[in-house]
Design goal:
Blueprint: H1 7-13, H2 17-29, E1 33-36, H3 42-52, E2 58-61, H4 71-84, E3 87-94, H5 98-106, H6 112-115, E4 118-122, H7 128-135, E5 143-147, H8 159-170, E6 176-180, E7 193-196, E8 204-205, E9 211-212, H9 215-221, E10 226-229, H10 231-234, H11 239-258
Parallel strand pairs: 1-2, 1-10, 2-3, 3-4, 4-5, 5-6, 6-7, 7-10
Antiparallel strand pairs: 8-9
Helix pairs in contact: 1-2, 3-4, 5-7, 9-11
The chain binds 5-iodo-2'-deoxyuridine-5'-monophosphate.
GO molecular function, one term: orotate phosphoribosyltransferase activity
Active site: 91, 93, 96
Binding site for substrate: 38, 60, 151, 210, 230-231
Amino acid sequence: ERILLPYEKRAEFATNSIAKQLFTIMATKKTNLCLSVDLTSSTKILDLLEKVGEHVCLVKTHIDIIEDFTNDFIVRLKQLAQTFNFLILEDRKYADIGNTVSLQYSKGLYQVGEWADCVTAHSLPGEGLLKALNNSNNGLSRGVFLLAEMSSEGNLITKDYTETTVKMAAKYPEIITGFVCQKKETFKDPGLIQLTPGVQLESSKDELGQVYNTPEKVILENGADVVVVGRGIVAAKSPVSEAIIYKDTLWRCYMKRVSG
Ligand code: 5IU
């Protein structure tokens, strides 16, 4: 079973170079925390990453919520990624025909393909979108997390949609890093990464349908490999000490899982 294998072993099964790198970073830095930096000021994001970069394996951005975006932000983000050895995931959730996704990925103000190690995408439009992303990497190592499930209440994804999404991904082993999903049964391939959002220290909900599960539940029962935490950290009184609490808690759950 994939969830019983340690990350360093999982890295050996990875067919996507970003998945291999991410498994290796987790094993080396001993963290499976992905920080979702959902802040709208570039200096606030950079200041926070300066302090928590050492505790995370992956930083998840929504580049289009930043109010003072400049190219310098990207330069500094990449510097931090290199200094602290984390990868960058732009949570763009591409959901259009292949030609449009190719343009959205490579062009426009953000030029996501230039700086994001990996991106998120919906399977809804069909595999043309994966072909487009696969052909737009400019020879760089790039990856895609495909949405197989969502954390929000009342979302329209069905069991059949999830299964077809996993089958679609199997046709693109070189570009698929893993799935954004909530359950361990969703896929079996040990070389792919389960990225799970909707996590806080206590189970709860927000007022707009987000559902939070605990680290114990998502890692030990539901099979999460990389855990996404946003407001649990960024909206805490002390984001840095909270990030350390999440990192330690998540890693303890993972250690328990792989030690049987
Ligand atoms: N996110 C989810 N649920 C999903 C998917 C993405 O919450 O199913 I796909 C994103 C949205 C937000 C982050 O950027 O993960 C979670 O933030 P909070 O921990 O603040 O809820």
